[in-house]
Q: What sequence folds into this?
DNA sequence: TTGACTAATGACAGCGCTGTCATTTACGAT
DNA sequence: ATCGTAAATGACAGCGCTGTCATTAGTCAA
């Protein structure tokens, strides 16, 4: 949304300007802070403080103000507050995709964490485009957000500068980094990939391949770790690494597996960059009559709910996406609250190997940072 | 979020109050409409009009204003605009769940439709609780939204009254009704259920059952239609209708199928209220060594991407959730724009039977309203 | 009791924009 | 040239809240 595009403002229709009063909502004579203050016998600014910084108001006044709020059903006007304080209660959330199953759990964590908070979420979908991400960051910062949550650590140079100088806490998620912009919460994609490599090697597979789609930076890091893990035992083979820029899907998993066998028919295992691909690969393997896991191993990534129920249950790597969503909000709240003690600026979580029926030795439980 | 809960305002930390200027964002001396007006040699109000109602400003002034906007990088302040106009550009979106795969596609449609619009989305998750939905409606209306999008047609009495008197367009989605609150877009859940019944009957199944979880009103309507369809041919059997209030999941699909066979071992087909359950049921059927579709038929609902790739591919009902998301925003935009011609207030979409490999006759293509 | 603090409260102005209504300009008809 | 109408523009006030700074009340030690 550029400055110019804002010009096409769809607002301005005259939708029922004559308001109707119901349940005190949207009444023409809205309950304001002044009303509350008057009812409590204090000034407006004291009422304002009572709501925002209760400690700064006397016990007595506070009680009267709170009860007036209750009685009148006062609800603060976010717009007025934002205008006066040059700060909205919006937390911007930049995600590469809305479809992605990872996103759903992440979002759930975020929403669980803002509950009983006055924070509000605004989602921006940059569709895996770094330049779109950059422009969304610009747009969001113009709205004076309370915080910004971004995916990953691979922003453009300009985006990174904006984030570093942003007048609000910024949280990078889903990945770790030694040079975070500000706060960061995630797990090591690279180490997770290495862990998968070890798992497949330990299971005795000797000609492992890879399927990847829509190679965003996180997937790339994962895959880099995987290949590095294979390389240490001399099993990295570029012919077996099949990727596509197209979106990831179950159908794509099947196609890519076919491509893999076309390129290297003797491949005996695959790491799929996510569980959708892995599910597709498993279905395709079934169609081809492969014996999974005996003669062909499959390992997914993310550990979706579905995966453990497939036949055979899918080996995958469980990622803490819900926790990352929750934690990202916690980091922002801590940054916003001067009273919060020493909340760390960095949270490292683990990805956990869930070895199941699509790979041979299904009893090891590894952990990756 | 009640009035009182707003009291715990997490904002108010003093996050870097001293602003840093970068790329004109959040600079202490922000570019305002006045700056634009001055640069263009007009008054502020004219500049404001040029942006919101270009037709009301002369060609000449408009051009100068637009170029000033460009040059200065002006971005309107949403808070100030909201305060002055008593109208935000927020569209509230009330959904029963964030996890649900249906939700993801719906959301994608919504976000695609607000692109290049100044509208903004605010999501409220009411977790299948009608009372929570009601309180979210109240909260949202307090924020003077541009529009409200709700799921289904089964709000509480109080919620319905609020919606009817809301000073903004309201769109009900996912279901049809003869008494919509305002605008409505969806398909008939009931007819979809009937369609499934016909499909199973036509395929020759004679002892069909049902699996349902988390019985929200839409699922209930679907199931009512299904049972009605069975009843017309005397095949409705309450023993075969297995439901649970617990959340729907792939794992739950397997469990429910086990329950079904425990209750009625001779059941020869199931309609699963969504594809997650259906996938779980299919996996469970495989574990039990049932011959699908010959001796046991399975039909899902929603037609997720995964379904067509399963082995065998899952028969399901494709629902237009993406289109509903897009359409809901279109309905709101039309309502907001007095110029928009005669956009209907009601949009009926179709759910389409996708007969595949988990039911016997897999070549009919039906449609339900 | 006084003084030196800190805690509690309030007056005021203004955040940036838009609704209202008054005023000016443009333009065609007389 | 004059008038009447519509189009274009502008002055003004105020939306509801909060930052700033001044003022008053409260507390404790001497």
A:
């Amino acid at each position: 949304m550029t400055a110019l595009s804002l010009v096409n403002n769809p607002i301005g229709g005259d939708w029922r300007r004559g308001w109707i009063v119901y349940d005190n909502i949207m009444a023409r004579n809205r309950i304001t802070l002044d009303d509350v203050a008057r009812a409590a016998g204090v000034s407006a600014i004291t009422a304002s403080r009572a709501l925002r910084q209760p400690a700064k108001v006397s016990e007595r006044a506070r009680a009267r103000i709170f009860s007036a709020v209750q009685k009148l059903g006062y609800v603060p006007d976010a717009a007025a507050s934002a205008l006066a304080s040059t700060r909205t209660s919006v937390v911007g959330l930049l995600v590469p995709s809305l479809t992605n199953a990872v996103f759903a759990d992440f979002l759930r964590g975020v929403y669980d964490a803002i509950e009983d908070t006055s924070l509000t979420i605004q989602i921006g979908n940059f569709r895996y485009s770094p330049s779109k991400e950059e422009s969304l960051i610009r747009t969001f910062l113009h709205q004076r957000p309370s915080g910004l949550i971004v995916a990953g650590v691979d922003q453009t140079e300009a985006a990174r500068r904006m984030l570093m100088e942003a007048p609000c806490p910024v949280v990078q998620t889903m990945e770790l980094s030694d040079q975070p912009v500000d706060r960061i919460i995630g797990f090591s994609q690279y180490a997770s990939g290495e862990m998968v490599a070890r798992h497949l090697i330990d299971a005795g597979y000797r000609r492992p391949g890879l399927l990847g789609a829509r190679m965003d930076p996180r997937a790339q890091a994962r895959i880099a770790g995987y290949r590095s893990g294979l390389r240490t035992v001399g099993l990295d083979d570029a012919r077996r690494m099949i990727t596509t820029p197209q979106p990831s899907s179950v159908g794509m998993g099947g196609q890519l597996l076919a491509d893999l066998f076309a390129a290297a028919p003797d491949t005996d295992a695959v790491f799929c960059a996510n569980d959708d691909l892995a599910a597709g690969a498993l279905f395709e393997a079934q169609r081809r009559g492969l014996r999974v896991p005996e003669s062909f191993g499959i390992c997914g990534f993310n550990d979706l709910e579905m995966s453990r129920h497939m036949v055979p249950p899918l080996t995958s790597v469980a990622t803490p996406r819900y926790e990352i969503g929750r934690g990202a909000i916690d980091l922002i709240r801590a940054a916003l609250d001067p009273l919060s003690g020493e909340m760390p600026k960095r949270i490292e979580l683990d990805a956990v190997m869930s070895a199941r029926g699509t790979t041979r030795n299904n009893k090891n439980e590894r952990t990756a940072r």
Summary: Chain A touches chain B through 99 residues (CB under 8 Å).
